[in-house]
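RETRY 2/3 - previous attempt timed out on the joint model. Re-submitting the same 1072-residue input unchanged.
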Amino acid sequence: MMEYPLLLRGILERSRKLFPKKEIVSRDYTGIWRYNYGDFYKRVCRLANVLQEMGIHKGDRVATLAWNNHRHLELYFGVTCYGALLHTLNLRLFTEQLEYVINHAEDKVIFVDQDLLPLLEGIKDKLPTVQAYIVMTDSDELPATGLNPVYSYEKLLAAAPDAFDFPEDLDEYTPAAMCYTTATTGDPKGVIYTHRGLYLHSMCIGLADSLALSETDSLLPIVPMFHVNAWGLPYACTWFGSKQVLPGARPDPATICKLIEEEKVTLAAGVPTIWMAVLAAYRQQKFDFSSVRGFVCGGSAAPKALIKAFDEEIGVPILHAYGMTETTPVVLVSKPKSYMLDWPADQLYDAKAKQGLLVPGLEMKVVDEEGREAAWDGKQIGELWLRGPWIAKEYYKDPERSKPAFAGGWLHTSDIVSVDKEGFVSIVDRAKDLIKSGGEWISSVDLENTIMAHPAVQEAAVVAMPHEKWVERPVACVVIREDWKGRLSEADIISFLEDKVAKWWLPDKVIFVDEIPKTSVGKFNKKALRQRLEQA
Amino acid sequence: MMEYPLLLRGILERSRKLFPKKEIVSRDYTGIWRYNYGDFYKRVCRLANVLQEMGIHKGDRVATLAWNNHRHLELYFGVTCYGALLHTLNLRLFTEQLEYVINHAEDKVIFVDQDLLPLLEGIKDKLPTVQAYIVMTDSDELPATGLNPVYSYEKLLAAAPDAFDFPEDLDEYTPAAMCYTTATTGDPKGVIYTHRGLYLHSMCIGLADSLALSETDSLLPIVPMFHVNAWGLPYACTWFGSKQVLPGARPDPATICKLIEEEKVTLAAGVPTIWMAVLAAYRQQKFDFSSVRGFVCGGSAAPKALIKAFDEEIGVPILHAYGMTETTPVVLVSKPKSYMLDWPADQLYDAKAKQGLLVPGLEMKVVDEEGREAAWDGKQIGELWLRGPWIAKEYYKDPERSKPAFAGGWLHTSDIVSVDKEGFVSIVDRAKDLIKSGGEWISSVDLENTIMAHPAVQEAAVVAMPHEKWVERPVACVVIREDWKGRLSEADIISFLEDKVAKWWLPDKVIFVDEIPKTSVGKFNKKALRQRLEQA
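RETRY 2/3 succeeded.
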């Protein structure tokens, strides 16, 4: 067989040749921007010419600070197919972290959405490697800014030729993109994605048995393009010629619902907190979701109650998936096997609420504290280890933290899981969030999901608090739904749990709060929660 | 990303771990054999131990002369995952060709189905590299044979351990399998399939937009496992945990129909002649095909009339695909784009009768006689050139014939095609079968398919005959359906064609024949047909 490199260039070229008429829709600052893969290709070529003109070399880091929009999509391909490295900056990082990642990656230029300029202005004097800022706006004029030198994306593109010879001879292990994890302790850790990894990951999520992405789809990625390649969806959609619907800056739940209805979205992807908000919005106003074949839910565990609510109230299946920054990210997808469809409804929901089956292409191992492999009995727990062609091999320029995380050629995920007889993986907890009470483990995730099955509960997070006798005991923080406020007591929650969990799992305390603190990618921030509780 | 090699081992291991209960059904000599991926894995391990015991080394050629059955499937994985090279011998080759390919490949052992022993007995003294024959039979006793030394597959397996450590560190470019083309002129040409190529090809045919192979499928490969990896289906099905239904020795159309009905087949794959025979059988007896989601048709062009007949009479879509020995084989799949579904029925049938869209992962070019790229206008024709990770880079040990066929890093397919505005490729003809009449091209394939749309016609093949004035002129050889015999004249065929093709395309002669000669893989053998006509 030919030694033909697996490059993103092949993805881009296929969309131009086979799907020039298929649409890309982007919620811009001034409205809805529409174009097609034919025009998209020309702008990607213009962008590559701009990079060349600016003196960007192969391997140089080109950063983006941007929402999910068509310009960001152009950068996804223009930068990577050119041979440079796309560094997507997480716009929800603290200023110090943003400064850290830009300097650690040694970004050479930053492409920034107009409304995100202030994030950079405060740190501009501390970014010695950055040689230029390119502002992305619909307006003819750039907003006033202290950044320097600063250029207009649209003006640069307009002046550049609309053809470009993308290199065909890159090594497939060439880095294409990078992203930093939102570490809750210490500095963020950088992960490099190669052309090969992104290519294979894209193929994987087009498989009938994973996300089955297809030309027939109209895809809405709510999951941000600034984090883990928006779960790889922009690459895969472009390859298969799917319609892409990019929701732009700060999409609120109503905007999301409207986009789904108006653009006849078939598949959308987001974290559980997004789907909780969409459910709340839908309960207020019945949008037309008849085009939808599924909502992909990942980033943290989707509660069974959420999955059931979408099924029963909206008639849309939640497709549960699991991944992390280090894994490009898709690792597990919870699609029941054919013979499981005969199971009783509740048992099937239990399966769907698990993170699911390992996708084709990866290998996993579940390793307990003594280094033994856990049995697949749904009970034994251990840390999930992964290896495969789209799993990171190290943290960027960080040998010290890479060593334990990638020991022995496996990624040690720090996720504690069990695997049932069917091979369905269930995330029990993050290693550091597991609660050890009297020598036994309590899963904070299981407790949370059980509490969230209560109709009055909007969100719940469970953390360990130190305990003299039992070492640790669980404490639940609960957000009550607006219409239930004042009608629910701590005792109600406890009595709701009594026939659902073991007695010693019952939280020592239930605290009603207005919100659960979240990380920059929308997950429960348990570190912040523990700090708040300690202070209180 | 990890430098994790793409190996068939990963496919095998996934089936064992995730789908141990899923079924493999094989039509054996004594009935239907059933087992599951759990038991399959153990037998594959036993087989690997047998290979080791026999002194097979990495890279050694291990040949099979076998039908589509479970033992052949075990060899597909046991040999390749062990690190040796699976050489599938085409049991329909002429004796001299069989001798040639065994010696050219330097096969070390041959695994042979009991009823195929006679094929080897006649040439056994001319196979210096072959050190052993392993006979595959359900019976306890081996049939009497002059082959020596000879072993029983089942006895060897029974004596071997059922665990094996398949190597994890093979280079992904390691050859895994090989197959010889059934060249109509000269000796057969060998094609090597690497682990990487088979792995990526398997992923490709699992894509929602290609064959969408899935765990939910019950797959019947009628296309032989001795030729081009049975279109890669055995590898892909094992990866995704599909049920496999292997039809065994010499399956006739009624057997195929019965297997589809009884094993609730969802997808089956074969050449057009198979589907013509299945259609004829179905017309005699209405089998229950309600489980079927599609019949994949490749190897030669599927006539539009056949596609329509399956749709209208059976309610099963024909999924048209294209490939060749040198391409693993899937290259094109004719799945209409979403917006084409609004087209008028007849226009949509025209699209489905084309070979279709290039699958993700490959690149193509259509090059005319002057070396220019043909426009995608559905009219200009040229030779189809291909490149990609599952396209051969050369013919095995044959630099002389490799040079023109792989010039410039592209496979020159010798297939003359046109491409329409949607990117759908249409095979006009094999380069050598095109008819050049008065300086203009006539497509023998188009003429055949138009003739086959006549309700009385079972099969039709068109070849060029020399002509003094026009250089070449078309002659049609037609097989009439049983119930129409004696009721159709040459003039009927010509008048049927008159409003369907250009006047100068009308055949100079229509000859009624009892059968069209076929190649060893079921395609029209036009070389043999031309010879017959010349003799007549």
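Chain B touches chain A through 54 residues (CB under 8 Å). Closing ticket.
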